[in-house]
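Quick one:
INPUT:
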């Protein structure tokens, strides 16, 4: 679908610079549209048929981008931060400057995080009404046993104001340091950590394995990312 858009907006969206920087570049004659140098920032271009160059390099138009990141610990789930590196900083070859993480993982949590500039998709996936499934792998300080599985199945009472929805807890190893997988259907702040705290145990390592139908690609080592495939994007869009 072709889209008419102001030249300065187009260049800013594609990450050439801020709106005021690109206005200056246009004034200086760095920008050509279909081979002609253009000096008017409010010229409307057709993103399908017009060829825009900045300093002789073609600026392609990408409307939406979708990435899967295996988030490393130590990086914050935000678009910018005064002191820490953000998950967006890790997507080094993104085309668009307006991508953001779909939801948050704690700074010390690893694993699956989707980044996109598709606000509608993000909104749907995060909607509390949708109850999109999220599966985490965790190491727990303390012996996790069948009683915990039952409590999780009924819904853990976290405090007077919050009882977690029923969750599926699977014990992989029951020992002083247990290993588990847990599937939850909501995404409150520190949710998994608080659920284990409520049964007297402590999460010492947490990694997200899936979100809805989307599974973390195990070929991605921590810190690596890749674009989502068409099928993966479709499956997220079809999430109930
Ligand atoms: N639950 C948590 O406690 N932390 C996360 O990062 C995600 C889920």
């Amino acid at each position: 679908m072709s889209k008419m858009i102001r030249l300065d907006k187009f260049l800013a969206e594609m990450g050439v610079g801020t709106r005021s920087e690109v206005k200056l570049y246009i004034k200086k004659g760095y920008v050509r549209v279909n081979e002609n140098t253009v000096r008017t920032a409010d010229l409307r271009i057709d993103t399908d048929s017009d060829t825009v160059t900045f300093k002789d390099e073609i600026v392609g138009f990408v409307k939406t981008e979708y990435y899967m990141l295996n988030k490393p610990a130590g990086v914050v789930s935000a678009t910018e931060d005064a002191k820490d590196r953000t998950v967006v900083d890790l997507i080094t070859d993104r085309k668009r400057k307006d991508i953001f993480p779909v939801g948050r993982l704690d700074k010390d949590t690893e694993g699956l995080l989707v980044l996109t500039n598709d606000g509608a998709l993000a909104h749907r996936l995060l909607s509390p009404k949708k109850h999109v499934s999220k599966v985490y792998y965790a190491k727990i300080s303390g012996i996790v046993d069948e009683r915990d599985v039952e409590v999780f199945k009924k819904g853990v009472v976290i405090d007077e104001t919050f009882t977690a929805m029923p969750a599926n807890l699977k014990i992989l190893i029951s020992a002083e340091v247990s290993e588990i997988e847990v599937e939850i259907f909501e995404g409150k702040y520190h949710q998994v950590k608080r659920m284990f705290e409520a049964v007297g145990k402590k999460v010492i390592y947490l990694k997200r394995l899936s979100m809805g139908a989307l599974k973390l690609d195990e070929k991605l080592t921590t810190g690596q990312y890749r674009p989502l495939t068409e099928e993966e994007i479709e499956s997220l869009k079809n999430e109930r």
